[in-house]
Specification:
Blueprint lengths: L2 H20 L2 H6 L5 H14 L4 E5 L1 H6 L2 H8 L3 E5 L5 H13 L10 E5 L14 H4 L2 H6 L3 H8 L1 H4 L1 H4 L5 H12 L9 H4 L13 H9 L7 H16 L3 E5 L19 H12 L4 E2 L12 E3 L2 E2 L1 H18 L9
Parallel strand pairs: 1-2, 1-3, 3-4, 4-5
Antiparallel strand pairs: 6-7
Helix pairs in contact: 5-17, 6-15
C-alpha cells in the first residue's frame, strides 16, 4: 500500500474511533466541564446513583432557581434539580425517555415530577447540541425528523460544530486537562449539589443568550415541540408519576402562561388550561410575589438569594397541594 493510501486509511480509522467514542457515555462524563451535554450527563449519572423521590425538570430557569437542599429541608423529600440550560420540550422528552429506560421511575425512586415551564421550552432549536446524544430515535422516526435522526447515528457530523469550539485556546487547554484529570463542571458536581446551580451575573448566560431566550416569548409555541411536551406528560403519567407544573419567576414581566391580557398569550394560556383539564396542578410560586433586582442574576434567572426565597415558596405550595406527599417518599 502506498504512503498516501496508508495515510487515508489511518485517517478513516481515526475518525471511526472518534465516532465510536462519541457513542459512549464516557465521552460526555469525561468532558462534563467542557460541553453542556457533558454537564447533563453528570446530572443523569448522579440521578441514577442518589436517593431521589422529587425531580424538578426544566431549562436554565429551573437549573438556577431552585435549591434541592432547601426543598428537602422544608418538605423532607430527597430532591434533585434536573434543569437543562437551553433545552426545549423535545430535549426534555429525550431526557425523560432515557430516565424511563434506566428505571428511574420505578417504585422507591422518583415518584413526583415538577415541570418548570417558560415560553422558550416550546420553541424549536437545540443550540447546545443535546439532541445528538439524548433525542429519542423512535420518536424522531415517527415525526419524520430524519436530519436529527441521522445526527444521533453519525455524531461526528451532528456534534461537529461544538467540537470545533476546541479551536479556542482556552477551551482546548481545559479539554486537554480534562483528558487526564477529573474536572467538575461550573457549579460543581451534581452528586454534591443535587443538580442545583445558582445563577451568577454573566457567568452561565450572557446577554445575547438571554435575549435569544426572551425572543421565544414573542413567538407562538412550535406545534411539533408542543407535541413532544404532551408526550413527556403522557410518559410520566404512564409511569404513575405525580406531576405538577410551575413557572419560574421573571423580573420584568409575567409569564405568558399567566398573562391573560397580553396579545401573544392565547396559545400559552391554552396549554395551561389543557394541563388543568388533565388534572395537573399548577404551583403558584411567583405570580403574586414582589420581585426585586437583588434576587436575580439577570431578568430571567434567579441568583442564590432569589433561589432561597422561591425554593421555600415552592416547598410551601407543594405541601399545601399534597399534604401527604412525604409519606413513603423520603
Amino acid at each position: 500500500m502506498s504512503r498516501k493510501g496508508s495515510g487515508a486509511l489511518f485517517a478513516v480509522l481515526l475518525l471511526l474511533i472518534c465516532e465510536l467514542y462519541l457513542h459512549t457515555d464516557n465521552f460526555l462524563t469525561r468532558y462534563r466541564s467542557i460541553f453542556a451535554a457533558g454537564r447533563l450527563m453528570d446530572k443523569l449519572n448522579a440521578l441514577n446513583e442518589l436517593p431521589v423521590s422529587l425531580l424538578l425538570v426544566g431549562n436554565s430557569r429551573t437549573d438556577n432557581g431552585f435549591d434541592s437542599f432547601l426543598i428537602k429541608e422544608t418538605t423532607g423529600l430527597n430532591t434533585f434539580n434536573l434543569g437543562v440550560p437551553g433545552a426545549n420540550a423535545q430535549i426534555l422528552y429525550g431526557v425523560v425517555s432515557r430516565l424511563e429506560e434506566q428505571g428511574v421511575f420505578r417504585e422507591g425512586k422518583v415518584n413526583t415530577v415538577l415541570l418548570g415551564l417558560d415560553e422558550s421550552i416550546f420553541q424549536f432549536g437545540d443550540s447546545l447540541g443535546y439532541g445528538v446524544f439524548i433525542d429519542n430515535r423512535e420518536t424522531l422516526l415517527q415525526n419524520y425528523q430524519f436530519k436529527e435522526l441521522f445526527s444521533t447515528y453519525f455524531r461526528l457530523l451532528g456534534y461537529g460544530d461544538h467540537l470545533k469550539e476546541l479551536r479556542e485556546p482556552e477551551k482546548l487547554v481545559r479539554f486537554i486537562k480534562a483528558t487526564y484529570q477529573e474536572i467538575e463542571p461550573m457549579g460543581g458536581s451534581a452528586k454534591i449539589n443535587y443538580g442545583f446551580r445558582p445563577g451568577e451575573r454573566d457567568k452561565f448566560q450572557n446577554d445575547q443568550q438571554l435575549l435569544a431566550q426572551e425572543a421565544g416569548a414573542l413567538k407562538p409555541p412550535g406545534k411539533q415541540v408542543e407535541l413532544y411536551f404532551w408526550e413527556l406528560v403522557k410518559l410520566l403519567k404512564r409511569n404513575n408519576v405525580a406531576v405538577a407544573v410551575f413557572f419560574p419567576p421573571l423580573l420584568n414581566r409575567d409569564t405568558l402562561f399567566l398573562d391573560d391580557e397580553h396579545k401573544r398569550a392565547k396559545q400559552y394560556i391554552k396549554i395551561k388550561e389543557q394541563l388543568l383539564s388533565l388534572g395537573i396542578p399548577i404551583l403558584n410560586i411567583g405570580s403574586q410575589e414582589t420581585k426585586v433586582p437583588a434576587e436575580f442574576a439577570n431578568a430571567g434567572h434567579l441568583n442564590r438569594k432569589g433561589a432561597t426565597r422561591f425554593s421555600k415558596k415552592m416547598s410551601q405550595e407543594l405541601l399545601q397541594l399534597w399534604p401527604n406527599i412525604i409519606v413513603g417518599s423520603k
